[in-house]
Each structure stands twice: as structure tokens, then as C-alpha cells.
Write a structure and sequence with these properties.
Seminal Fluid Protein  PDC-109 (Domain B); 25% strand; single chain
Amino acid sequence: MPLNPPVIGQDIVQWGRQLNRFLTVNFGKIIFKQSEDNPSENGVFRWDEANGYAVISSASAFKEVVMRHTPPPANTGTAGDTSGMISWDTNYIYVCVGAHDGSTAIWKRVALSTW
């Protein structure tokens, strides 16, 4: 299937079928992530409803696609925080280095300065 959508032709019904097939093939993997989803196939996109962000499968794991914009409330973070998350505010950049367990300091931060 080509990467470009089909061109509208004389037969609008046939074009509709071709467009539907194109969308199914090219966008069919962008769906809600289910607990039984297997990340062993690299490049599968999902929306992680539980955590509220997009994920992609890579190296047999689902990894967050977008950076988190809300800074953690404390260095222990909150439920759902995982290693690799990045946040910032006007004073710091925050990096999560572990999984949230309620007591371990999993967020590190570095101060921002002008240059």
C-alpha cells in the first residue's frame, strides 16, 4: 500500500474503499493501549489511558512518547511515574530515574540559569 492516500477518481465508491483500506493499514495501530498488548513488535503506537500519554513499543517495552510537563510534587513522585519521564518549570528540569513506589526518591532535578 502506498504512503500517499488514493487520488479521488471517477468512481467515488471505489475511492472510498481504497481510502478506507489506506487508513486501516497506515493508522490501524494507533489505538488505546490494553493491559494484554504485547510490545515485542517495535513501532506500535498506543494511547495509555491509565497514564494519559502516548506510548510506543521499543525493545520489548512500551515507552512514553511525549514529555511530561507537570513537575512532580515531591522527589518521590506520584503513582504512574516511571524512569525516563521529564518535566520542567521556570526554575528546574526534572528527570525521573525509577518507578514510583511511594517512598523512594525517584525524581532528580537540575537548576536552570540564563546564558
